[in-house]
Amino acid sequence: MRIHKYISLTGYCSRRETKRLIESGRITVNGVICNKETDVLEGDEVLIDNRPIPRKTSSIYLVFNKPVGITCTANPEIEGNILECVQMPERVFPVGRLDKASQGLILLTNDGELANRISQSDYGHEKEYEVTVDQPITSLFLLKMAEGVPILDTMTKPALTEYVSKYVFRITLTQGLNRQIRRMCKTLGYAVEKLERIRIMNIHLHALETGKWRVLETKELLELKKSLNLSI
């Protein structure tokens, strides 16, 4: 299998982090620095920074309420990385991204297969956000946000929008373009003052305090895996 998938299945890090390690020349297969096209066969020796990859003893699934200012990376070289807030005896990594200026729900795990399924936008997994903007929300604004907005040389996919209060609305996306909601609002003449993710698929933030984390409940995990067509 390709090196990205192999590393991901070990639970060491996400495919995005694997890409960074490959580009830095930190992964070798049988003593040879690998690239993104490298295949791993049974019996091959795969090392990261000249050390064997630690094997996970069990799968970990966490819900974290990320504060503003924390970067969604497991890279220990980056100050304010997410693992400084979520310290576990086994290595975990964030599923997807939530930009530094945003807050709210993010999943952390050492289950590479689950992380990759959630992160692939082709599957259309829902992610819901509560957004505060700098001026009153109109029905036309909500309609345009729902129908699609031109950003990054593309038109965003249809979304669900809901009026909450004069300056607050909710939006449910099925894609994850870079800083998508902020760019969409800017295109329509609005500036985002607060952006909070409150749901990923069937996982809700609810009353989890900012900066706190909890273990995913069994019922939540079973429903999540069923939605992702993963074995339970």
Number of strands: 15
Report on the biggest sheet. 9 strands, mixed
CATH topology of the largest domain: Alpha-Beta Plaits
Spatial gap, N to C terminus: 23 Å
Helix content: 10-25%
CATH superfamily of the largest domain: Pseudouridine synthase I, catalytic domain, N-terminal subdomain
What share of the residues does DSSP label as strand, in percent?
A: 25-35%
Query: Total number of helical segments?
Result: 6
| Helix-and-strand structural type | alpha+beta
Radius of gyration equals: 19 Å
What shape does the CA trace take? elongated
Unreliable sequence segments:
none
CATH class of the largest domain: Alpha Beta
**Integer average pLDDT:** 91
* CATH-scheme architecture of the largest domain: 2-Layer Sandwich
Number of domains: 3
Order of helices and strands: HHEEEEEEEHEHEEEEHEEEH
Would you give an account of this structure?
This protein has 232 residues and is of the alpha+beta class. It has three domains: 3-52, RNA-binding S4 domain (Structural Genomics Hypothetical 15.5 Kd Protein In mrcA-pckA Intergenic Region, Chain A), CATH 3.10.290.10; 61-121 and 203-227, Alpha-Beta Plaits (2-Layer Sandwich), CATH 3.30.70; 126-200, 2-Layer Sandwich (Alpha-Beta Plaits). Helix content is 22%, strand content 27%. Strands 5, 6, 7, 8, 11, 12, 13, 14 and 15 form a nine-stranded mixed beta sheet that branches. The longest helix has 10 residues, at 218-227. The model has no long low-confidence stretch (mean pLDDT 91).
